[in-house]
Amino acid sequence: MELLVTYDVSTIDTEGERRLRQVAKLCEGYGLRVQKSVFEVVCTAADLLKLTDAIGRIIDDTQDSIRIYRVPKGTFGAVDTLGIAQRLPHAESLVL
Amino acid sequence: MELLVTYDVSTIDTEGERRLRQVAKLCEGYGLRVQKSVFEVVCTAADLLKLTDAIGRIIDDTQDSIRIYRVPKGTFGAVDTLGIAQRLPHAESLVL
Protein backbone atom coordinates (compact mmCIF):
# COMPACT_ATOMS: atom_id res chain seq x y z
CA MET A 1 0.00 0.00 0.00
CA GLU A 2 1.33 3.46 -0.97
CA LEU A 3 0.15 6.48 1.00
CA LEU A 4 0.68 10.17 0.58
CA VAL A 5 0.47 11.84 3.97
CA THR A 6 0.14 15.63 3.92
CA TYR A 7 -0.46 17.87 6.90
CA ASP A 8 -0.85 21.38 8.19
CA VAL A 9 -0.23 21.60 11.91
CA SER A 10 -0.96 24.98 13.43
CA THR A 11 2.18 26.49 14.91
CA ILE A 12 0.72 29.63 16.43
CA ASP A 13 2.00 28.48 19.81
CA THR A 14 4.77 26.31 21.24
CA GLU A 15 2.24 23.55 21.80
CA GLY A 16 1.58 23.51 18.04
CA GLU A 17 5.30 23.44 17.29
CA ARG A 18 5.61 20.42 19.58
CA ARG A 19 2.74 18.69 17.75
CA LEU A 20 4.39 19.45 14.40
CA ARG A 21 7.65 17.87 15.50
CA GLN A 22 5.81 14.84 16.84
CA VAL A 23 3.80 14.31 13.64
CA ALA A 24 6.96 14.61 11.54
CA LYS A 25 8.87 12.22 13.78
CA LEU A 26 6.02 9.72 13.71
CA CYS A 27 5.78 9.85 9.92
CA GLU A 28 9.56 9.42 9.61
CA GLY A 29 9.08 6.02 11.19
CA TYR A 30 6.68 5.07 8.41
CA GLY A 31 8.05 6.64 5.26
CA LEU A 32 10.12 9.23 3.41
CA ARG A 33 9.80 12.97 3.93
CA VAL A 34 9.64 14.50 0.48
CA GLN A 35 8.63 18.01 1.48
CA LYS A 36 8.21 19.81 4.80
CA SER A 37 4.72 18.45 5.35
CA VAL A 38 4.52 15.66 2.82
CA PHE A 39 5.50 12.02 3.34
CA GLU A 40 5.52 9.09 0.98
CA VAL A 41 4.70 5.92 2.89
CA VAL A 42 4.87 2.30 1.75
CA CYS A 43 3.21 0.14 4.39
CA THR A 44 0.62 -2.51 5.21
CA ALA A 45 -3.06 -1.92 5.97
CA ALA A 46 -2.34 -2.68 9.62
CA ASP A 47 0.39 -0.03 9.64
CA LEU A 48 -2.05 2.48 8.18
CA LEU A 49 -4.40 1.86 11.09
CA LYS A 50 -1.58 2.29 13.60
CA LEU A 51 -0.31 5.44 11.89
CA THR A 52 -3.78 6.97 11.75
CA ASP A 53 -4.42 6.17 15.39
CA ALA A 54 -1.06 7.58 16.48
CA ILE A 55 -1.49 10.80 14.48
CA GLY A 56 -4.96 11.21 15.93
CA ARG A 57 -3.51 11.12 19.44
CA ILE A 58 -1.00 13.86 18.66
CA ILE A 59 -2.96 16.48 16.76
CA ASP A 60 -5.39 19.12 17.92
CA ASP A 61 -8.58 18.29 16.08
CA THR A 62 -9.70 21.89 16.14
CA GLN A 63 -6.58 23.32 14.47
CA ASP A 64 -4.59 20.71 12.60
CA SER A 65 -5.27 19.12 9.22
CA ILE A 66 -4.08 15.67 8.14
CA ARG A 67 -4.79 14.07 4.75
CA ILE A 68 -3.86 10.47 3.93
CA TYR A 69 -4.26 9.58 0.26
CA ARG A 70 -4.12 5.94 -0.79
CA VAL A 71 -2.41 5.78 -4.12
CA PRO A 72 -1.57 2.89 -6.43
CA LYS A 73 1.80 1.15 -6.35
CA GLY A 74 4.16 3.06 -8.61
CA THR A 75 2.67 6.48 -7.97
CA PHE A 76 5.76 7.70 -6.15
CA GLY A 77 8.08 6.53 -8.89
CA ALA A 78 6.06 8.43 -11.51
CA VAL A 79 5.79 11.76 -9.69
CA ASP A 80 6.59 14.84 -11.76
CA THR A 81 9.14 17.01 -9.97
CA LEU A 82 10.22 20.60 -10.46
CA GLY A 83 12.95 22.61 -8.75
CA ILE A 84 14.85 20.79 -6.01
CA ALA A 85 12.21 18.06 -5.70
CA GLN A 86 13.45 14.55 -6.44
CA ARG A 87 11.93 11.14 -6.85
CA LEU A 88 13.05 9.05 -3.92
CA PRO A 89 13.73 5.32 -3.97
CA HIS A 90 11.49 3.32 -1.65
CA ALA A 91 12.40 0.07 0.00
CA GLU A 92 9.36 -2.29 -0.05
CA SER A 93 8.11 -1.24 3.37
CA LEU A 94 9.90 1.27 5.51
CA VAL A 95 8.01 0.63 8.72
CA LEU A 96 10.52 0.28 11.57
CA MET B 1 -6.99 13.21 -14.75
CA GLU B 2 -6.58 13.79 -11.00
CA LEU B 3 -3.41 15.43 -9.72
CA LEU B 4 -2.08 16.10 -6.28
CA VAL B 5 0.15 19.16 -6.39
CA THR B 6 2.35 19.71 -3.34
CA TYR B 7 5.02 22.35 -2.94
CA ASP B 8 7.59 23.93 -0.68
CA VAL B 9 8.54 27.40 -1.86
CA SER B 10 11.39 28.97 0.05
CA THR B 11 10.23 32.11 1.83
CA ILE B 12 13.53 33.26 3.28
CA ASP B 13 13.14 36.53 1.35
CA THR B 14 10.37 38.68 -0.08
CA GLU B 15 11.14 37.29 -3.52
CA GLY B 16 10.29 33.83 -2.21
CA GLU B 17 7.09 35.08 -0.61
CA ARG B 18 6.10 36.53 -3.98
CA ARG B 19 6.80 33.18 -5.69
CA LEU B 20 4.72 31.40 -3.05
CA ARG B 21 1.75 33.67 -3.67
CA GLN B 22 2.12 33.23 -7.42
CA VAL B 23 2.27 29.42 -7.23
CA ALA B 24 -0.80 29.36 -4.97
CA LYS B 25 -2.71 31.73 -7.23
CA LEU B 26 -1.80 29.70 -10.29
CA CYS B 27 -2.90 26.44 -8.67
CA GLU B 28 -6.18 28.03 -7.55
CA GLY B 29 -7.00 28.42 -11.23
CA TYR B 30 -6.60 24.69 -11.70
CA GLY B 31 -7.98 23.08 -8.58
CA LEU B 32 -8.92 23.12 -4.89
CA ARG B 33 -6.56 24.16 -2.11
CA VAL B 34 -6.87 21.49 0.58
CA GLN B 35 -3.92 22.53 2.71
CA LYS B 36 -1.50 25.44 2.66
CA SER B 37 0.72 23.83 0.05
CA VAL B 38 -1.46 21.04 -1.28
CA PHE B 39 -3.91 21.25 -4.18
CA GLU B 40 -6.27 18.70 -5.62
CA VAL B 41 -6.59 19.23 -9.37
CA VAL B 42 -8.99 17.63 -11.84
CA CYS B 43 -7.86 18.55 -15.34
CA THR B 44 -6.91 17.37 -18.82
CA ALA B 45 -3.47 16.23 -19.97
CA ALA B 46 -3.12 19.50 -21.88
CA ASP B 47 -3.88 21.45 -18.71
CA LEU B 48 -1.20 19.48 -16.87
CA LEU B 49 1.35 20.57 -19.46
CA LYS B 50 0.26 24.21 -19.15
CA LEU B 51 0.29 24.05 -15.34
CA THR B 52 3.73 22.46 -15.24
CA ASP B 53 5.12 25.02 -17.68
CA ALA B 54 3.61 27.94 -15.77
CA ILE B 55 4.89 26.69 -12.40
CA GLY B 56 8.33 26.20 -13.91
CA ARG B 57 8.39 29.86 -14.94
CA ILE B 58 7.55 31.05 -11.43
CA ILE B 59 9.76 28.98 -9.14
CA ASP B 60 13.43 29.25 -8.29
CA ASP B 61 14.84 25.90 -9.35
CA THR B 62 17.58 26.11 -6.77
CA GLN B 63 15.30 26.62 -3.77
CA ASP B 64 11.73 25.54 -4.44
CA SER B 65 10.24 22.05 -4.59
CA ILE B 66 7.16 21.06 -6.58
CA ARG B 67 5.68 17.56 -6.74
CA ILE B 68 2.82 16.62 -9.06
CA TYR B 69 1.36 13.19 -8.39
CA ARG B 70 -0.99 11.64 -10.95
CA VAL B 71 -3.60 9.71 -9.05
CA PRO B 72 -6.58 7.66 -10.20
CA LYS B 73 -10.07 9.10 -10.48
CA GLY B 74 -11.73 8.78 -7.09
CA THR B 75 -8.57 9.24 -5.03
CA PHE B 76 -9.72 12.61 -3.69
CA GLY B 77 -13.09 11.28 -2.69
CA ALA B 78 -11.48 8.46 -0.70
CA VAL B 79 -8.91 10.50 1.20
CA ASP B 80 -8.68 9.82 4.93
CA THR B 81 -8.92 13.05 6.88
CA LEU B 82 -8.09 13.92 10.47
CA GLY B 83 -8.60 17.15 12.42
CA ILE B 84 -10.03 20.05 10.41
CA ALA B 85 -9.25 18.40 7.06
CA GLN B 86 -12.29 17.70 4.89
CA ARG B 87 -12.99 15.88 1.67
CA LEU B 88 -13.90 18.50 -0.90
CA PRO B 89 -16.38 18.04 -3.74
CA HIS B 90 -14.82 18.40 -7.18
CA ALA B 91 -16.64 19.58 -10.27
CA GLU B 92 -15.49 17.50 -13.28
CA SER B 93 -12.75 19.93 -14.31
CA LEU B 94 -12.08 23.16 -12.48
CA VAL B 95 -9.81 24.74 -15.06
CA LEU B 96 -10.96 28.32 -15.69
UniProtKB/TrEMBL annotation, chains A, B:
- Does the entry feature the keyword Ribonucleoprotein, yes or no? no
Q: Which Pfam families match?
A: CRISPR_Cas2 (PF09827)
Please provide the record's keywords in A-Z order: Antiviral defense, Endonuclease, Hydrolase, Magnesium, Metal-binding, Nuclease
Residue ranges of the TM segments: none
Write down the EC number.
Answer: 3.1.-.-
Sites where the protein binds Mg(2+): D8
Coiled-coil residue spans? none
> Molecular function terms in GO for this entry?
endonuclease activity
- SUPFAM superfamilies assigned: TTP0101/SSO1404-like
Please give the InterPro entries that the UniProt record associates with this protein. Answer: CRISPR_associated_Cas2, Virulence_VapD/CRISPR_Cas2
- Cofactor names: Mg(2+)
Similarity annotation: Belongs to the CRISPR-associated endoribonuclease Cas2 protein family.
Functional description taken from the UniProt entry:
CRISPR (clustered regularly interspaced short palindromic repeat), is an adaptive immune system that provides protection against mobile genetic elements (viruses, transposable elements and conjugative plasmids). CRISPR clusters contain sequences complementary to antecedent mobile elements and target invading nucleic acids. CRISPR clusters are transcribed and processed into CRISPR RNA (crRNA). Functions as a ssRNA-specific endoribonuclease. Involved in the integration of spacer DNA into the CRISPR cassette.
- Name the NCBIfam families on file: cas2
Subunit notes for this chain?
Answer: Homodimer, forms a heterotetramer with a Cas1 homodimer.
Q: What is this protein called?
A: CRISPR-associated endoribonuclease Cas2
